[in-house]
Write a structure and sequence with these properties.
mainly alpha, 19 helices, 64% helix, Tetratricopeptide repeat protein, TPR-like_helical_dom_sf
């Protein structure tokens, strides 16, 4: 069954006025920072909105747009109602005001992941059946030669965004196996498909690589370290084949993080330094800051305080330059709370528990409550640092706060940190 053609959003185009799409995207990012949101808006996103491809923005963009244009609602901005796009919503209590309630976890995973691969009638991606409760998703692989077009590329790019959104809210444990299916399909398209234009193929390569990194992170965060290592290597190979420096820097960034987590500190140093070389021409100070933090954590793991402090100083210098139009979309998580949390890792690795606790506490204070998974992670790190610093009562209180907040969050990393804290507190 053919899907209806996208209707251009003329109302949104009028609101853009005389600004170019890139200029307007910069205004959106600035407005997001004013209200504590983080969106990776660029000219292409604005183009998709104006073309009618994005019928309703996600919740973060909705808050930003309504902040930019007070007194207007989504309809005034040219968007469709969310329930019309999703096809359902939870019923609001009688007399309730404000935005509709967020779907439950299972409803949201089913809805979001299903729609990520529902495209305009292509044989490859239209017949999608997402399972829940551990049942894998089934997406038919392309047979024979398949023509790659905009629909396939957008499906892969949207899957990356939606998987990251769900990870932010719920953690990785329940998502990893489900998210692996679209990854296999993306690479099957690359193996068996042909693109009309080189730009289309480059976008699919970039999307497949980012999807591999997203799935790799789900494996990493859920304790499947060998799977994560494989996915990160796959993304790095894709970056090298396509000559994509941004994807290469991202792959090295994740590889360094994983190597540090698994005690391979020399490898973590080398990967972070390789990422810095790849990121050099990209004109993104925030990316350089994050990679410098990865290198600092690796040196700290080796017990090299001088090198770690040098990298931390460099990270703060880069971070101080602020956001740039060239910041990668995947870095939307990297704000001041994450900066504090990553610095806390370094001091913890160097055995300076009081300093580590101070930075992890700053991370919890600065983190917006909407990012439930990250807030729980920062609090779990704080509890461990407090316990090791000998501040038992504070550590116990913080650990209880984490445990009480884990409803709907599935992260082996957080559970592991709590288990370590309990061992310290019980003197085992």
């Amino acid at each position: 069954m053919a899907m209806s053609r996208a209707v251009p959003n003329l109302a949104f185009r009028r609101l853009r006025g005389q600004h170019s799409p890139a200029e307007f995207a910069a205004l959106v990012r600035r407005a997001a920072r004013e209200i504590g949101e983080q969106v990776a808006c660029d000219a292409r996103y604005i183009g998709r909105v104006e073309a009618g491809e994005i019928r309703c923005p996600n919740y973060a963009y909705e808050r930003v747009f309504l902040h930019m244009f007070p007194g207007l609602n989504l309809a005034d901005l040219g968007f469709s109602a969310r329930e019309a796009v999703r096809g359902r919503r939870q019923a609001a209590p009688a007399g309730a005001s404000g935005p509709p309630a967020l779907p439950t976890r299972n409803d949201e995973e089913s809805d979001v992941l299903r729609r990520a691969f529902m495209t305009s009638g292509t044989a490859t991606l239209a017949a999608v059946s997402w399972g829940l409760g551990g049942t894998a998703a089934a997406i038919p692989s392309p047979r024979g030669t398949h023509r790659i077009g905009e629909a396939e590329v957008l499906a892969v790019e949207d899957a990356v965004r939606r998987i990251r959104l769900l990870d932010d809210r719920h953690g990785a444990d329940g998502l990893y196996k489900v998210a692996a299916q679209p990854l296999r399909t993306a690479y099957a398209l690359l193996d068996r498909g042909t693109a009309a234009r080189r730009s289309t193929e480059d976008r699919l390569l970039a999307g497949a690589g980012e999807l591999s990194l997203s799935v790799g992170w789900l494996a990493h965060d859920s304790g499947r370290h060998e799977d994560a290592r494989s996915h990160y290597a796959e993304a790095l190979a894709t970056a090298r084949v396509s000559g994509n420096a941004a994807l290469e820097a991202h792959a090295f960034c994740n590889t360094s993080f994983l190597a540090r987590d698994t005690g391979r500190y020399r490898e973590a140093v080398r990967a972070a330094q390789a990422g810095l070389r790849a990121a050099g021409p990209l004109d993104s100070p925030r990316l350089l800051a994050l990679l410098s933090l990865r290198e600092a954590a690796a040196w700290a793991g080796l017990g090299d305080r001088s090198s770690a402090e040098e990298c931390l100083g460099r990270a703060h210098d880069h971070f101080g330059h602020g956001h740039a139009d060239q910041d990668p979309e995947w870095m939307s998580f990297f704000g001041e709370p994450e900066l504090e949390a990553l610095e806390s890792h370094c001091w913890a690795a160097l055995g300076d528990w009081t300093r580590a606790a101070r930075h992890s506490h700053r991370a919890t204070v600065l983190q917006h409550p909407r990012f439930a998974r990250n807030l729980a992670l920062y609090r779990a790190q704080l509890a461990g640092n407090l316990a090791r610093a000998g501040r038992r009562d504070e550590a116990e209180a913080e650990a209880r706060r984490v445990a009480d907040s884990l409803d709907g969050i599935a992260s082996a990393r957080i559970r592991g940190l709590l288990a370590e804290t309990r061992l310290i507190l019980t003197g085992v």
